[in-house]
Amino acid sequence: MTVLDARALNRATLARQLLLDRADLPVLDAVTHLCGLQAQEPQEPFPGLWSRLRTFDPAELSDLLTGRHVVRTHLMRRTVHLVTADDVLAWRARHDGMLRQRVLGVYRRELDGVDPGELATAGRKVMADGEPRSMPELARAVADRWPAAGPRPLGEMLVAALLPTVQLPPRGLWRTKAGARYALISSWLGSEVDPPTTDGSDPVGQTLVRRYLTAFGPAASADLRAWCGLAGLPAAVSALRGELVAFRDERGRELLDLPDAPRPDPGTPAPVRFLPAFDNAILGYHDRSRIIDDAHRHLSVAGERVVLVDGRVAATWTVEADTVLVNPLRRFSRADRTTVAEEGGAMASFLSGGESDRVRIAASPA
Q1: Taking Cα atoms as reference points, which of 40, 94, 32, 69 lies closest to residue 191?
Q2: In three state form, how does the secondary structure of 308-339 look?
């Protein structure tokens, strides 16, 4: 079985994630290809798409949100993702059990004695009027029935698990700050989510495997599980084995992939890329060593924006007074500093609407 080293996996990931070459794709097609973008920080999908698309107008993404073609919703790993309307309708029911268990993992004691079915019925009754509500508003509306649980646990169980909901605009629009207000998916999109299958098959699980490998492969089953949070996909993987190819990584793990998916030569040059907080190019794996050193792994869950140099996390970045500030994690060569400065200046111009291309790179660590 062919062994793929970290550099080979890195170049494959960059190609699948549209980070090796910027793509000539409409925004909706890019969101579809990427299986959504992590979006608990509402503005982060904008720099994420700017780094991936050759031509990106942030107004196009805002229009897709207000036009109900993409939505913000709790989905993979119970985190807020920006996904297409088609995907949330098709995938939401497959995530129901995981979403409930993850909320209970935080609030099991507080929700002890609260019947999920009764809570869901109470929540749907409140939301039946079609009016958007914040999580505290929804929780207060049902709290009299379960006063011991407290509003936060009730609210999170409702909006993140029991009720298929979306966060409505203006939250998530370009350069807009707004609190999270929720509506039922059925109300916002005019369609109920697809029901789960009852015949023992798992077509949605198989779709998730194919789509994940398209955007993230080659990858191990543990990587797939880390991306979506679903434990019950071994049957889907087994059902697809006949159409997949297998490799091993340097640690001996089996990696699966689609046979015709891009796996660039490991020597392919990788451009500097600025990634937003919580980018799935990093969080979409259990073993993230293909793109980030273990010593820096914590950065990906701490909400740090990172810079890729030669395909790997080499710096963090922030913005202050329309200036992109870069803090290297390792020594930069003169060529590195030049290319990082060029891309950082372009990012500054994008974020400031052309008002500034200022970038400042701190000294490399000793």
Answers
A1: 69
A2: EECCEEEEEEEEECCEEEEEECCCCCHHHHHH
Rounded to 5°, angle at Cα 167 from 216 and 102: 60
CB-count burial class (<10 Å; 0-12, 13-18, 19+) for 128: exposed
Q: Mind listing the pLDDT tens digit for each residue in 243-278?
A: 999 999 999 999 999 999 999 999 999 999 999 999
* Average pLDDT value over all residues in the chain: 97
- Give the long-range contacts of residues 288-291, CB within 8 A, separation 24 or more: 289/6, 290/6, 290/9, 290/10, 290/13, 291/10, 291/13
Nearest to 214 by CA among 247, 281, 275, 262: 262
Spatial separation of the C-alpha atoms in residues 334 and 246, rounded to whole Å: 40
Peptide bond into 170 cis (omega under 30): yes
For residue 2, count other CB atoms closer than 10 A to its CB.
11
| Pairwise CA distance, residues 176 & 103, whole Å | 28
Q: What pLDDT digit, counting tens, does each position of 344-363 carry?
A: 999 999 999 999 999 999 99
For residue 106, CA distances in Å to 78, 111, 227, 238 come to: 12, 10, 19, 32
At 20, is the secondary structure helix, strand, or coil? Answer: coil
Q: Say which residues have a Cβ less than 8 Å from residue 331's Cβ, sequence separation at least 6.
A: 364, 365
Beta bridge partners, 37, equal 82
**Is pLDDT above 90 for 201?**
no
Question: Is pTM beyond 0.85 here?
Answer: yes
3-class DSSP state for residue 231?
Answer: coil
